[in-house]
Amino acid sequence: MSAPLPSARLGLLILDSIDLPHRAVAGDYEQLFRNLFEFSGHEIVAVDVKRDLLPAHDECDGWIIPGSRQSVVDDDGWISQLRTWTRRALEVQVPLAGVCFGHQLIAAELGAHVGPAPGGWNIGVVDYEVLDSPPWLDLPDGYSLIASHQDQVLTVSDEMQLIATAATCPVGAFTVGTNVMCVQGHPEFVAPLAASLYKARIERIGSDAVEAALATLQRPLNRLDVAHWLLQTIYQGRPA
């Protein structure tokens, strides 16, 4: 990883909760992200989107929009409100980091098409090929993250710079301007948590797919590298 970044106040929008018993493996979303960003020393402010009012955009230096079991295209009231909040954040160039659902939501607000992945569930450790690197990042040729999604971003709008792709996920990561970075994979997930979730979804996903995904979980991950890239983008996008 690169040198530490100056201190920042990061907002974490909590969109969902990991069910028991899986939550006992590594914690709920707030704990997962606190563990992921522990190296940075940044203050993390968690906001429960389903219970609390959405915050003012300037309450934090940047915002992380993480995963949810729901789809971006669902008509739940909280999703509609979050989409409005995100649209405004993009208009005023608030620093954002999108992960899985957040990645898809930001893409949808930019006019990209989000829908079911043609190959069905995408699970296991996915190798993403880096196609381009923004000037404030020095990205390697590729990286690996745990994936767990049915929907994905299917097209790229003019405002999105595609920076990573995978065989099962063409839009693996993208940036918008100098203040937004989004990734489809889960840098906050650890292998034991993924294994617990996959095993509980055999009936929905299929035993062969789950078995194949479980076999990938011993592979090295670039969790902290991706976390640092997200933070670098948030820091890059902060007002001078």
Structure, described:
With 240 residues, the protein is of the alpha/beta class. The protein has one domain (9-237): Rossmann fold. Helix content is 30%, strand content 26%. The protein has eight helices and eleven strands. Strands 2-1-3-4-11-10-9-6-7 form a nine-stranded mixed beta sheet, sandwiched between helices. The longest helix has 15 residues, at 77-91. The protein is globular, with a radius of gyration of 17 Å. The relative contact order is 0.18. The mean pLDDT is 95.
How far apart lie the N and C ends?
A: 24 Å
The domain count comes to 1
Q: Report the strand count.
A: 11
CATH architecture: 3-Layer(aba) Sandwich
Task: Write a concise synopsis of the structure shown.
The chain is α/β, with parallel strands linked by helices.
Which terms would index this structure?
nine-stranded mixed sheet, alpha/beta, 240 residues, Rossmann fold
Break the fold down into its secondary structure elements and pairings.
Elements: E1 9-14, H1 23-26, H2 29-36, E2 43-48, E3 62-65, H3 77-91, E4 96-99, H4 101-109, E5 114-116, E6 122-130, E7 142-149, E8 151-153, E9 160-166, E10 169-176, E11 180-183, H5 191-200, H6 202-205, H7 207-214, H8 223-237
Parallel strand pairs: 1-2, 1-3, 3-4, 4-11
Antiparallel strand pairs: 5-8, 6-7, 6-9, 9-10, 10-11
